[in-house]
Amino acid sequence: MDLKELKGVHHVSAITGDAKKNYEFYTNILGMRLVKKTVNQDDTSVYHLFYADERGNPGTDLTFFEIPNAGSTHYGTNSISTTSLRVATDASLGYWENRFNEYDVEHDGITQESGRAVLPFRDFEGQRLVLVSDEKNKGVPAGKPWEKSPVPAEHGIRGLGPVTLTVSRPELTASVLTDLLSFKETGTFTSAKGSSTIRVFETGEGGTGGEVFLEENNDLPRERPGRGSVHHVAFRVENEEELRKWVQLFNDNNLPNSGFVERYYFRSLYFREANGILFELATDGPGFEGDEPFETLGESLALPPYLENQRESIEARLKPLDTKQ
């Protein structure tokens, strides 16, 4: 089957227990734009918040499901253990270190990882994040920070960088990445703490926006997810026609999968890789401006057309969240 190469990371979806504090942290402190305030389409009683560049370009979205009764995460193996966010230059990390100190954001200080300057940090729920410099990037282009962000544009977050998968049986995940998804294994590096060797896998134009890091860890039990954990990672597919080819490939090979899923803002296919991590393939479009104008993205509760007739009951179950800029 003639399948085009995946174009890079599409989005990462994580879990929060508090939508209001989450919104304040990712917009007021990290300076990302809330481009869509909607609901989890599989459980419409909870918010699904999308933070991104100025218009939610594919490869820039960090999203959160609000699960108010979620417990704390018990960190472990077989998990998406780190999400990275791209900034323009090494100098930008100095700006961010000062900003994190000003806002009492827990961080580890600037270091080097995979030949790039990075700044690991955690949000208020312990979500594991890393700012990564694009100064040497020659791969997948970055997004464009929102001009109304409280963070100066030259230092603004420009999209998603590599995600780190920590697994107990790395060869199984590596096989899924290379044999099924056609990633290329391009090298290794030693983790910033010097405790493990990380394998690098690349797709599309590669670089910061087209990489997955794979780490082996057999010393910890399986992660017990909660607030502060990542739910899934999605990779970019060019369009719906291409996604349907992926669905056919999975079905032809009897690989368990969700089948074609309509998400309105994009179309998806979900499956679990061999260590139990949830992967998604998602189309680059249609995007977030089909139901809201660019100027007011994220300010109102947006529902896809197939949920619109339930708006009254959906809104009645949600705690109001003021996101007007």
Automatic annotation (TrEMBL):
The keyword Oxidoreductase is annotated on this UniProt entry: yes
InterPro entries assigned: Extradiol_RC_dioxygenase, Glyas_Bleomycin-R_OHBP_Dase, Glyas_Fos-R_dOase_dom, VOC_core
Keyword terms: Dioxygenase, Oxidoreductase
Coiled coil: none
GO molecular function, one term: dioxygenase activity
Annotated transmembrane regions: none
Xref: PROSITE patterns: VOC
Alphabetical list of CDD domains matching this protein: PcpA_C_like (cd08347)
Residues covered by the VOC domain: 8-134, 159-284
Name of the protein in its database record: Ring-cleaving dioxygenase
